[in-house]
Amino acid sequence: MPAATALTLTAPAASATPAKRPAAAERVYAHVKQAVLERRYEGGTLLTEGELAEAVGVSRTPVREALLKLEVEGLLRLYPKKGALVLPVSAQEIADVVETRLLVETHAVRKAVPAPAALLERLAELLAQQRVQAAAGDFAAAAVTDRCFHAEIVRSGGNEILSRLYDQLRDRQLRMGVAVMHSHPDRIAKTLAEHEEILAALVAGDAEAAVAVVTRHVGWFQNLARGEVR
Q1: CA angle 169-174-176, nearest 5°?
Q2: Which of 70, 141, 184, 193 has the largest count of CB atoms under 10 Å?
Q3: Of all helices (H) and strands (E), which one includes residue 47?
Q4: 201 with 162: CB under 8 angstroms?
């Protein structure tokens, strides 16, 4: 009887490469930017390299790299040997963002009529999501959903250049949105009501009504320009 052949089971080679951890500077960048946008680091806060290095678990070198990038984006101002100052949202920045949003969004909402069913469904979904977030007091998440609601309308026009221009406002919109919800908590209910009006106008195919609501809704942010928002 032939000898039994030994069957050797080779363990799978450890070829499955584990997901790479983001580079140290990227982790610092993401940590600081998110904290600034969500106002955990408010305007006027001085951040030090040592504190950030300890918070993220990295050395000071990647911290400097991340802070330089955030300074270029206009969120911080670096002071050698002192740290980085989180810049408040200025009245001029608010005015500039509002002016740009009105130009883009009034054009986009008019162009969205007649609105395709997919857009109406997506807007209704985002509105329901924002209601839940607002009820839970999750201002950061509600601000993100708010911004997505408007971005969906802009994207529906199919103009890639306009969509990219609008996307450049993202960080400023989020920061201003969270600031509004903290300083004007009564504004959340008004925002939801105006989103409902925008959706209703699109459902009805009334372009002029949609433009009127968007103008009133976005234009309200001019109220923040009375002073700097931290």
Answers
A1: 95
A2: 70
A3: strand 46-47
A4: no
Task: Calculate ∠ Cα 204-208-210, nearest 5°.
Answer: 60
pLDDT at position 173, please?
85
* Cα–Cα distance, 148 to 98 (Å, whole number): 16
The parts of the chain modelled with pLDDT lower than 50 are 1-19, 227-230
Looking at 3.30.300.30, 3.40.1050.10, 1.10.10.10, 3.60.10.10, the CATH number of the domain 24-86 comes to: 1.10.10.10
Which of 207, 164, 176 is closest to 98 using CA atoms? 176
pLDDT of residue 224: 67
Report the distance separating Cα 20 and Cα 147, nearest Å. Answer: 30
CA within 13 Å, CB half, 1: 2
Distance CA(176)–CA(94), nearest Å, equals 8
What are the DSSP E strand ranges found in 69-203? 76-79, 83-86
Please tell me the predicted confidence (pLDDT) of residue 76: 93
Residue type, 82: K
| Residue 66 contacts residue 25 (beta carbons within 8 Å) | yes
- CATH 1.20.120.530 for domain 91-226, yes or no, is yes
Residue 207: which of 119, 106, 102 has the closest Cα? Answer: 106
The pLDDT score that the predictor gives to residue 225 is 64
